[in-house]
Fold this sequence. Notes:
The complex is a heterodimer.
Chain A: H1 3-9, E1 12-15, H2 19-31, E2 38-41, H3 44-51, E3 66-69, H4 78-87, E4 96-100, H5 105-113, E5 118-121, H6 126-143
Parallel strand pairs in A: 1-2, 1-3, 3-4, 4-5
Helix pairs in contact in A: 2-6, 3-4
Chain B: E1 4-5, H1 23-38, E2 42-46, E3 52-55, H2 57-63, H3 67-70, H4 84-95, E4 103-108, E5 114-125, E6 131-140, H5 142-194, H6 200-230, E7 236-240, H7 241-255, E8 261-265, E9 270-274, H8 275-292, E10 299-308, E11 311-318, H9 350-360, E12 365-370, E13 374-379
Parallel strand pairs in B: 8-10
Antiparallel strand pairs in B: 1-3, 2-3, 2-6, 4-5, 5-6, 7-9, 10-11, 11-13, 12-13
Amino acid sequence: MSLAGQNIDRALLLVEDNPRDADLILRSLKKNHLLNPVVTVHDGEEALDYVFARGAYAGRQALPQVVFLDLKLPKLDGQEVLRAIRADERTKYLPVVILTSSDDELDLVRSLVGGANSYVRKPVVFAEFSEAVRQLGLYWLILNEAPQSA
Amino acid sequence: MPFVTSRPLAGGEVGDDSEGPGRSSRLERFHLAAIVDSSDDAIFSESLDGGITSWNRSAERMYGFTAAEIVGRHSRLLIAEDRRERELEVFERVALGERIKPFETVHRRKDGAPVEVSLALSPIVDAAGRRIGISAISRDVSETNRMRRSLTQARDAAEAANRELEAFSYSVAHDLRSPLRSIDGYSEALVEDCEAQLSPDGRRYLGFIRESSQLMARLIEDILTLARVARGDLVVETVDLTGLARGVASRLERRDPERAVEVVVENWLTADCDARLMTVVLENLIGNAWKFTSKRTGALIEVGCDTGGGNRVFFVRDNGVGFDMKYASKLFGVFQRLHSTHEFEGNGVGLATVQRIVHRHHGRVWTESVVGEGTTVYFTLNGDVA
Lengths: 150, 386
């Protein structure tokens, strides 16, 4: 089985509570021919349900290829989600990209210390935002090798 | 009430013995007594065991005791109860010959009212070098302290209000970004997905929406930068300003490849400053020079440093449109603009940011300009004066 073939089936988990931002991310992915399935969840708890295949997502197949994680989230925030993912043997190497509006230095440092693979600030101007999503999608969905386990 | 002494203060006894208690010594004593008596400070003397031996006019005013009432009584009478132990301990040390700095304590008036004083105690020594008493100069600092406290309070309140305002504008600006991204994003989506259904006017209006949202995005970023430069610690190191300035210029050249601007940066410019903030300064100043030379040929921007008397004055000079110096004082205010957006784009946040950064570096920033000839912005760092 080719790597590209494998990757294309694996989902991008998008953790984003702002439906407009989520929609614009989906739009940018599609426009840039990044066709992996995208699972959108709206809070931290739902994100962990998906990652650990429990609750409503008990039947989910493979681990996502990558998680795009917002920081300000209802219930569990992004830092807590990141911590839970890194604390579990099954997911400690799962690629997690922080995609946030926050430009607080502390958020950046905490995310990196917490084991985020990348920290990207959402640009305001849509053309730049779309370009950021394109580059992230290309890198994390196509080029990067994610672990297969669990 | 005259200056009453049961025993002469210094001056009388500290005189040269060989001279004897002659006329000049007596005169000197009168002079000293007059000085002591006319002082605004309460001045009194005590014996080594704490008995009060002299008491000037100001002491009468300040404490409410006349000299007749207090001379001969123990000075602990003057000390507020909760300060007694500590102050008598200090008194003992001075009585043993130790020199101490004036200190603040609380004394008590005859009527029991507390009075905050700054108290200087020093030993009185006779001609033979023996300690014979202690002089006390007591200054009423109640009013000074009250004013200092209310100034401190006012300053703290102003600083807190300022911080709150800054935090507020920061979070407002920050939270505007997400809805703005939607406006910009969906305007583009509309153009892309529904272009066929749009009339030429409709397309034009959408263009305006996108243009405006992008201006607003820029404004928000600039306000966030302005708020950020006020926060956080300065990381001061020796910074290669020549390199920074050339970096800024080459970014501008890449952004506007059609512009022909000669940028001359002096070699070996360095300064002890925060590199990140100084980049913001140069981006704004060189960016302005770039912008305001856009309507002429032979545009020239110079970045350099004048050195005079050990002080260094950095400058960014252009030969652009310039401005009328009568507006110079407005230049550094937030949202102040001297040109319409029709002439030159901009939002008036840049120079306010520059000024704030320069001030944080203990510097000063000012401009010189001639309409039609160009503008020079000068700045100093680290307390250098111009």
